């Protein structure tokens, strides 16, 4: 069973950048869409970005469009999320998630806190 391990979460000031990473334990990473899903305190889950198998097609939620960039390195079984111009409302636990029509594998999450 493949495992996903996120890293890179931190306390950052508003307007600052951050880069999240997610490493998969097997090369099955290369066979499926990948997503970043976040959950803010007291709120539901929100898919903020998705990327297809080859990295050619991406999706962004309106709330992050123009500020976040998703990418993947299939040779290293790694998914990335570059977060720029962070806002307080971006504070959340960010999960790396596998799947397109169904999310079938989740990482443990990494905390991003945006505060001055």
Structure overview:
This protein has 116 residues and is mainly beta. 0% of the residues lie in helices and 47% in strands. It is built from no helices and eleven strands. The chain has strands at 4-7, 11-12, 18-24, 34-39, 45-51, 58-60, 68-73, 78-83, 92-98, 105-106, 110-114. Strands 2, 4, 5, 6, 9, 10 and 11 form a seven-stranded mixed β-sheet that branches. It has a four-stranded antiparallel β-sheet with strand order 1-3-8-7, with no helix packed on it. A hairpin with a 6-residue loop joins strand 5 and strand 6 (58-60). The chain is globular and about 40 Å long. The termini are far apart. The model has no long low-confidence stretch (mean pLDDT 96).
Topology:
Elements: E1 4-7, E2 11-12, E3 18-24, E4 34-39, E5 45-51, E6 58-60, E7 68-73, E8 78-83, E9 92-98, E10 105-106, E11 110-114
Parallel strand pairs: 2-11
Antiparallel strand pairs: 1-3, 3-8, 4-5, 4-9, 5-6, 7-8, 9-10, 9-11
Mean pLDDT: 96
The portion of residues assigned to helices is under 10%
Spell the H/E element sequence.
EEEEEEEEEEE
- Gross geometry: globular
Number of helices: 0
Instruction: Please describe the biggest sheet, giving its number of strands, its sense, and whether it closes into a barrel.
Output: 7 strands, mixed
- Count of beta strands: 11
Termini separation comes to: 40 Å
The radius of gyration computed from the alpha-carbon positions, rounded to a whole number of angstroms, is: 13 Å
Secondary-structure content class: mainly beta
- Percent strand equals over 45%
Which segments are poorly predicted (pLDDT under 50) over 5 or more consecutive residues? none
């Amino acid at each position: 069973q493949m495992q996903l391990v996120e890293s890179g979460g931190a306390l950052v000031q508003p307007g600052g950048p951050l880069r999240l990473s997610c490493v998969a334990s097997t090369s099955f990473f290369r066979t499926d869409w990948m997503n970043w899903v976040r959950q803010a305190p007291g709120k539901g889950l929100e898919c903020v970005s998705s990327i297809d198998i080859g990295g050619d097609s991406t999706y962004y939620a309106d709330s992050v469009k123009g500020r976040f960039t998703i990418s993947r390195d299939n040779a290293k079984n790694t998914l990335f999320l570059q977060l720029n111009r962070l806002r307080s409302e971006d504070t959340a636990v960010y999960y790396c998630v596998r799947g397109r029509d169904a999310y079938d594998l989740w990482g443990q999450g990494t905390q991003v806190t945006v505060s001055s």
